[in-house]
Specification:
The complex is a heterodimer. Chain A is mostly helical. Chain A has helices spanning 2-16, 27-32, 48-52, 54-57, 64-73, 76-80, 93-97, 104-117, 123-135, 143-151, 162-171, 174-180. The longest helix of chain A has 15 residues, at 2-16. Chain B contains 15 helices and eight strands. The two termini of chain B are 32 Å apart. The chains are: A mainly alpha, B alpha/beta. The interface between A and B is large, with 64 and 63 residues.
Chain lengths: 188, 291
């Protein structure tokens, strides 16, 4: 029991202490380069985003203000490997409410993009991307559903040129992330 | 009045899981004289991959915009996610030369070029801005005066306000007025403007289901007889997942969740069968019996 308590308090201490060696001073610039991340350093930590976030209300750990602080400080590994990063619903309430015009939700998306580049892609995105490559759409719609469209008098579902979609996956470099990512299942 | 002719962008979730939305939307559009042309060769709007790569999102969205430009028609979507994404990317590529050049560089491989000649609207925007409440009112043959409902806007129809510029996200009125045109009463309820939580499903289920349950309980508290949605994801959250929520929290809601075009269609005089009310998971016969 005492051992467990000791381990817990050590863990807390290690989380509360920032080591200069954990800080990547250039990280904030990396985030600012991605569209939507430009105003990261304007965040003055008022906490409006967390207070108004519908997800934060039902989570003990998801705090958008903290994610932004970690990014500002350059705690790259900690923020990129955090499960919390994947809980934003992108409802944009924080973007509309931020007094400093920081696009919080977009900063979080920029952080997710960097996380994917570094190999932290939750499996769900690999599935979505795979479906788009195979069918043009984010889900592989079963044949029965496609048939049902016709039975209820709807026109057949148009099909995307897969060759064209696949070229865009290659050209944007996204195909490379798909090979790299997906192994590290960031899940909460 | 603008020409009421649009390319119908169906997206992914509606043909996969929410056919009743498409069926009812086509019915009411035809009644209002809105011509819908099938959008050929379209792909996913790009939004689901935005968390993984902003560039692939921009490029997938831009490919759709290019196809619409070739057709020379504006896009109408039924899904707020698709509408929000295509509207934002359209605006960004029209205004930001640097981004446009980058994305056009990617599109070149697929033989496409973004020119910025069309607009994108969600069904609600088409109804409120192009068709107009007056015209909708003229098609109401059976006012739903016995019905009191709650509305649920999709976040991406109104947010971020700076980029979308439609309605007031803090005090949304347009869906309310579209509901009231049918004769039904639209009730206010606590935390009405909050997200349903759907985008988080798959990463974590407990948080979004708790959020949706909270909203359902607020709707129930004001005695709403149904919830009206304009988004396939909000619809899945409240309709498809309602029994899951009931089991999880050991509560009963029995709250019917109708797509807005189903509500309008009933007021126009379409039968519940024509509007695919049977496709709904939560039995809506209580709503129909009020008519």
């Amino acid at each position: 029991m005492n051992d467990k308590k000791e381990a817990q308090s050590k863990e807390l201490e290690s989380k509360a202490t920032l080591k200069i060696s954990d800080i990547d001073m250039r990280f904030k610039n990396e985030v600012k380069k991605i569209p939507g991340g430009e105003r990261l350093m304007m965040c003055f930590q008022c906490g409006t985003c967390t207070a108004d976030c519908p997800i934060a209300r039902f989570s003990d750990t998801y705090r958008p203000r903290q994610i932004l602080r970690m990014a500002q400080l350059g705690l790259k590994d900690r923020v990129l490997s955090s499960d919390q990063l994947w809980l934003c619903a992108a409802c944009y309430t924080c973007v509309d409410h931020c007094p400093q015009d920081v696009e919080i939700s977009s900063v979080i998306r920029a952080l997710r993009n960097i996380a994917v580049r570094e190999g932290y892609m939750p499996a769900v995105f690999k599935e979505l991307a795979g479906a788009i490559l195979e069918t043009g759409l984010a889900y592989k719609i079963p044949e029965l559903r496609l048939k049902r469209r016709l039975e209820v008098g709807l026109p057949p579902l148009p099909k995307a040129s897969l060759e064209s979609v696949s070229k865009l996956f290659n050209r944007t470099g996204f195909s490379k992330f798909m090979e790299k990512g997906g192994n590290n299942n960031a899940r909460t | 009045m603008p020409e009421l002719k649009y390319l119908l962008f169906l997206g992914c979730a509606i043909p996969y899981r929410v056919l009743s939305y498409e069926i009812s939307a086509r019915k009411v559009a035809a009644k209002l004289g809105v011509e819908l042309v099938e959008m050929p060769d379209y792909n996913c709007c790009g939004l689901p991959l935005d968390p993984a790569s902003h560039d692939i999102m921009l490029t997938l969205a831009a490919r759709n915009l290019c196809i619409a430009e070739q057709q020379g028609l504006n896009i109408m979507t039924l899904c707020p996610g698709c509408a929000g994404t295509l509207r934002k990317v359209n605006k960004m590529l029209k205004e930001d030369r640097h981004e446009r050049e980058k994305v056009n560089g990617y599109l070149k491989d697929a033989g496409l070029e973004f020119k910025g000649t069309i607009e994108v609207k969600h069904l609600m925007q088409v109804l409120a801005e192009d068709v107009g409440l007056e015209r909708i009112k003229e098609t109401v043959q059976r006012p739903l005066t016995q019905l009191s409902v709650a509305e649920h806007n999709g976040c991406h129809v109104v947010r971020p306000q700076k980029l979308i510029g439609f309605d007031d996200p803090e005090n949304p009125k347009i869906l309310k007025s579209l509901i009231e045109v049918t004769g039904a009463k639209c009730l206010d309820y606590l935390d009405e403007t909050e997200c349903c939580g759907a985008p988080v499903i798959g990463v974590n289920d407990k948080i979004p289901l708790s959020l949706a349950r909270d909203k359902l309980s607020h709707m129930k508290a004001v005695k709403a007889q149904a919830v009206i949605t304009v988004c396939p994801f909000c619809h899945m959250m409240f309709d498809t997942n309602q029994s899951r929520i009931e089991r999880m929290f050991n509560e009963t809601y029995g709250m019917p969740v109708l797509h807005y075009p189903q509500l309008l269609g009933l007021a126009m005089g379409f039968s519940p069968e024509e509007l695919a009310l049977k496709d709904l998971r939560v039995d809506a016969s209580k709503v129909v019996s009020q008519i």
